[in-house]
Amino acid sequence: MSDVKNEAWQYTTRGRLSTTIQLTQRPYPTYGEEDIVVEIRAAAVNPVEEQIAQLPDLMLRLGGAPPMGTPFIPSQDFSGVVHAAGLKSPWKVGDEVCGLKLDLSGEGTLQRYLRVPPSIPVIRKPSSLSFTEAAAMPLVYQTVYTALVSYGRLPFEPSPEDTGKRSVLILGGSSGTGSVAVMMAKQMGCKVVASCSGKNADFVKSLGADEIIDYRTEHVAEKAIASEHAPYAVVFDCVGGKDLIPYLNRLVLSDPKAPKLGIFVTIVGDKTDPDVLGGSVSNLTYPSQVLRHIRGALTDLLPNWLPCKSWIAGKRYACISLDQKTSYLDTIPVFLQRGGKVIIDSTFPFAEAKEAFAKLESSRAVGKVVVEFA
Ligand SMILES: NC(=O)c1ccc[n+]([C@@H]2O[C@H](COP(=O)([O-])OP(=O)(O)OC[C@H]3O[C@@H](n4cnc5c(N)ncnc54)[C@H](OP(=O)(O)O)[C@@H]3O)[C@@H](O)[C@H]2O)c1
After folding, report:
1. Domain spans of the chain, in order of start
2. What does CATH list as the number for 6-137+342-372?
3. pLDDT of 144-169, one tens digit each?
4. Is pLDDT of 325 > 70?
5. Hey, whose CA ends up nearest to atom 14 of ligand 1?
6. Where in this chain does the record put each Enoyl reductase (ER) domain (predicted)?
7. Which of 9, 99, 120, 341 has a CA between 20 and 30 Å from the CA of residue 328?
């Protein structure tokens, strides 16, 4: 395969990826007997690539990344066709696949030929999806599944008795993650209240939201608490910041008949700077988040008869990063069969990857930004 030309967008300096990435020639990847090499057809871009590109050297090294200055290829979501397969791989040449290569190795998916080891979650591309749509799903879908099903404990397959009884508040309903969350929560039989700006209200309603809060003109916490759907089995935060934290007690459900439900799950955390890495890593730098985790855990651990319980324990809270699990990706076809859609904000040809990052950096994308490989 040494005669097959590889090509990648990579950076060697910190900064906005719309300005730092450079197109370079790369060797075709060497691969082991359990690996595959995927000829990439599409790669979605995500805010986390921008945040990784701003990480201090110490954090990069702790995460196993090469030091800044070593060429780093961004992006993690991919779809494509298996171009080469190791002898022990379950995949064969020609298989159409999609997956998520979420690591700090610097071998991201903005390259024409990508080595994919068996540790990376990969599924067969759902036949109803184009390569562009299939590349837009893995990261946001696994994130939402982790938040609503794993941490939120909402049943992915709800029983008829569950339907209509629970409600979910989604902060950032028009975002890549929030839009999938609105659809998944609705499919799971929940009432959905979502925040977004007025210009995106009709779009978020069309995904299934029962009630919209315009974050630009309304007080999100007060409106959410006043809703007929409050309190919420899950508050899912795709925005970040601390505005809603003082209201946790009134937002998050406490129901003796459903003692496992009731949690505030954030994938961002207290930080508000879009260039700073959020999720579970931010628990290292925001001790108040850790304290909230602990107080929430005490709700489960302490007996109800303890007089000081309400003073020590708090509502369940988790600042999380997605779980990378093939079993989560395996549920995408069910999500699609139930009417789930892939929301694409915009697509850019491979040669215009810088423009794709510029769109992402605007923080105004509605759904996913995807780079298509010709
Ligand atoms: N921890 C994890 O595992 C994990 C996984 C995925 C993503 N994330 C993080 O989650 C965040 C969201 O990611 P994403 O890909 O979903 O973002 P995105 O699609 O780039 O978000 C852009 C959208 O957010 C909306 N928005 C901006 N500010 C808002 C606010 N205050 N309230 C409500 N909506 C607002 C914008 O709508 P308007 O134009 O109307 O403002 C726009 O539609 C990022 O910080 C990302 O790094 C974390």
Report:
1. 6-137+342-372, 143-319
2. 3.90.180.10
3. 999 999 999 999 999 888 888 999 99
4. yes
5. 176
6. 16-371
7. 9
